[in-house]
């Protein structure tokens, strides 16, 4: 009996003395863009840099007579309602310019 207890203690001691395995650190998250094509237009327009992008890439959007009606929508939603006036090229340019805002 003493031998079994001694044997168990001898076997378990090195296992118990080992430090726990290190958990690898999670990779640093890539910060999300401040604005996307789904961000409401009014949110983008409230930021001076965002407003500059909208005025440059989509001229007339912020002074459109229906602005109050669509300002809570994202640019992707507006494209479907624009009857082709908000093109894929315009959205691609706006997307790139909005992503550059930090």
UniProtKB/TrEMBL annotation:
Source organism superkingdom: Bacteria
Residues annotated as signal peptide:
1-17
Q: Which UniProt keywords apply?
A: Signal
Q: What is this protein called?
A: Uncharacterized protein
Organism, scientific name: Sphingomonas panacis
